[in-house]
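Check my protein:
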Amino acid sequence: PFQYCEVLNLDDCKEPRDAGELRVDEDNPVQLSVPSAVSRAPWRLLRVYENPIDTTVTYYAPKTTLAVTIPTLDPNRGRLTGLAVQLLTLVQDQDGQEFALPHAEWSISTVWP
């Protein structure tokens, strides 16, 4: 993983920053499959494009999605430069507000010809 935190203590993290590399081209989309252990929990997919401000985030509910097809070229955002799968944990702040934070992340950088 790129990062892994203990679910009961999100401040206790290991951050090896390991990222995979995937050769891509504009003609073939990426088929991303996640293991059932990931799909059983809420997770999100980050798609990073040439301009990082154009990063897109998609949330997936538990037990709904095992695979996603991702075009490598977006007409508005440009080339896909990376992907990240994040496993989420619901947390509550001191004011009682609930939100999801990643406790695990796997990252892939794309390599263009």
Remarks:
- Residues 73 and 79 are 5 Å apart (CA to CA).
- The helical segments are 36-39.
- The radius of gyration is 15 Å.
